[in-house]
Amino acid sequence: MSLFRFELRKLLLNKKTLLLLACLFVLYSVVGLTSTMFLIGGSDSYRAYEESAAGWEGPIDSEKAAEAEKIYQEVSARYGTDERMISRSVKDQPETILAVNYHAYAEQVEDYWNGTPPESAEEPYGIALLQGKIAELESQGKQDTYDYRELSATLERLEELGEPEFANALLWENLFNNWGEHMMQFLLFVPLTFVIAPVFAVERSSGMDNLILSSRNGRRKIVTAKLLSVLAASTVVAALYLAATFLFGFLPHGSFHGWDAAIQSIPTYARSMFPWKVWQLAAVGAVWLIFTGAVYSLIVCFISSRLKSQIGTAGVSLAILFVNVGLAAMGDTVTQRLGALVDFGLANVTLMKEVFGGYKGFNVFGMCVSYPVMAVFVLGILAAIVVLGIYQGQKSRTYA
Amino acid sequence: MELQLEAVTKNYKSNQVLKGISLTMGAGVYGLLGPNGAGKTTLIRILADVLRPTNGRVLYDGKDIRAVGDEYRAKIGYLPQDVSFYGDFTGRDYLEYSAALKGMEKARAKKRIEELACSVGLWNDLKRKCAAYSGGMQRRLGIAQALLDDPEILILDEPTSGLDPYERIKFRNIISAYAKDRLVLLSTHIVSDVEHIAAQIMMMEYGDIQHIHTGGEYVQMMEGRVWLGSMPAEELVDYQNRAVISNVKAKDGRMEIRIIEDTQPVPGAVQTVPTLEDAYLYLFNYLPGKAGR
Q: Are A96 and A72 contacting, i.e. CB atoms less than 8 angstroms apart?
């Protein structure tokens, strides 16, 4: 008989958890629905936007850019420059939304060619800036340095990607916001904590430890069964989040328009170095969320194997999550000082916009390794340590 | 098959719960008797490999059980003092889960579950939630779980607590029938649980096994030390603070008392046939002054 089947039942397929999952699905559906409704008014407004945007899609057009700039100036004079404020204020005016978005796109094109100002603390971006920096290093004879290799590689990729084009990917942008903003960590990771927390702690609180620890499969195979059930449970919860926000993000407007646009047409991913289409990013983002959810669940599982109570497990896990979120939310000077701790902390590494939205590289023995690759490596190592720790802990555990 | 303890000690901080126990057990039923706090459960847990000794080791056929690991645990059936259940498990779920933990094949597990459910009288209740079981039913389910994989070594901690007299007798019969060629260790503070079925009875107190004898040897040891006497009820109140009394019964306006004493305790007292319970009281010197231990 399969231990996995029982472990999955204890963790996921029981009345309480199924009820929780049903509530979560409703919550996630509401999140998907409200986010898309706040983005743009009813389906008529969206239809109007889609029709208007069709004429604006493609490479930059200076006349349209000038027209968009004019409308944007009027809007910002009335509502201020805060993007969210503007979005909320003009959500029933498709033409204005289009102009505001085109204005942002025009800035993005400018950014592509001229990039960050030289004095900026951000990593260098933009054709002209990169060419300038590379020329500077060449004049200093530093062609054999990591910086030179990184800048050259970035420039090469940027040239390959080409100048961004305008596309209507409004609903996809909304989806990626739902999948890649801090709100996701609260909506997905907090419930996940409570689903996973009992995995080991329940044996102690129920007194079943006695039976498990004295049995043939109670030291190793049960850990395998529990780990598999944790991975299955975290995948189910993450899939629920992904499916509900996807379904109810698109359903009100009945359109997937923009699915084959380049991801650089979405402002959050404008600086991404990945030559992906929107649908590809959606697939990668979904896998990423499931993957990071699984790693986080393994961490919760490890804590559960060390503590006696489910509440204690949930408390410690959430404390770790919130400390990470807190660190990532600190100002630039703090986050730059903390470096890898923030880059590979749960707050940043679980957000697809952080991992896939930029062009960050890491110097690994002189090689430039991209953020996603490093993130997979670091999370993989972390998961392996956690899994080994759980096996080792169960092997030597005694009834207490 | 042999189970051997070599100078096993267990400390909880500064409190030494087991004090260097050395013991060898082969096939047969062993009773472990002792008052609460004697260290029986700690010893049982060490034998069940859910607790590690502070010093010393447990050997199974000459090999340290920690080294034998899974294979040792595959040979034991363990009924803990407190049987616990998952809230939404039925009796059948619980036994199937136990079978999975023991690594039993599905078909064999199914057959054994049906056999044992009949043996312990739970056949009609297997579909009910464990949480709805009475204390006695939960205990019987625990016994079925311990016997599930035909263990070579059966370790039972207070197996009959919560059972009614009929269930207790039935349990004893199951264990007696089961014990052939196997090692059964039965820890209890209820003397009658082991009196009729244990080949060897170990008396444990203060973290050490003080005596190991057969039931007959214990009874023989008590020959001439158990007395029947009588006295007025008002005298008994004072007297019972000074003597080990195993039974009191009102008879013809006086109190008939069963006294454990080396010499004639009261005028007119006559010797009577001793029991294992008398030996238990005698060896642990159950004077009221020690009652608070």
A: no
Contact B76, A214 (CB under 8 A): yes
- Per-residue pLDDT tens for A213-266? 999 999 999 999 999 999 999 999 999 999 999 999 998 888 899 999 999 999
Distance of alpha carbon B109 from alpha carbon B98, whole angstroms: 9
Task: Please tell me the distance in Å from A26's CA to the nearest CA on chain B.
Answer: 25
ipTM above 0.90, yes or no: no
DSSP string of B94-113, one letter each residue? HHHHHHHHTT--HHHHHHHH
> By three-state DSSP, how is residue B121 classified?
coil
Per domain, the residue ranges of chain A are: 3-36+169-396, 41-161
Structure confidence by residue, pLDDT tens digits, B165-185: 888 888 888 888 888 889 999
Any B CB within 8 A of A139 CB: no
CA A167, CA B98: separation in Å to the nearest integer? 59
- Residue A327 tokens, joined: 């660190």
Cβ of B108 under 8 Å from any chain A Cβ?
Answer: no
In this structure, the answer to whether residues B192 and B74 fall within a common structural domain is yes
How many interchain CB pairs under 8 A, A with B?
Answer: 81
**Among A5, A14, A212, whose Cβ lies nearest the Cβ of B101?**
A212
For chain A, the C-alpha Rg in angstroms (whole number) is: 24
Residue B45 lies in domain: 3-218
